[in-house]
Write a structure and sequence with these properties.
Length: about 80
């Protein structure tokens, strides 16, 4: 059981940093764009391939960031 004074420390230990959160959200947006709009099975973001496994990891990081109250600082912009 946690003491109320420990909650901030535990939340900090399990929450992603701002950069990790932003990257996770970008991965989710890029994957959504490439798989639905462009009908591809994978996506590219900043020179990295994003597949279904990458998307699943990003979902976890994004959910943790949202739960921690982080706000996005970047948005995915499709190439073109």
């Amino acid at each position: 059981m946690l003491h109320p004074g420990q909650i901030e420390t535990v939340n900090a230990a399990f929450s992603p940093g701002q950069a990790e959160y932003d990257k996770a959200e970008l991965i989710l947006e890029a994957y959504q764009h490439y798989t639905t709009v462009e009908k591809r099975g994978a996506a590219m973001l900043d020179g990295e391939m994003i597949d279904a496994a990458s998307r699943k990891l990003a979902q976890v990081a994004a959910a943790r960031g949202r739960a921690a109250g982080l706000a996005r600082t970047r948005r995915f912009e499709p190439p073109g």
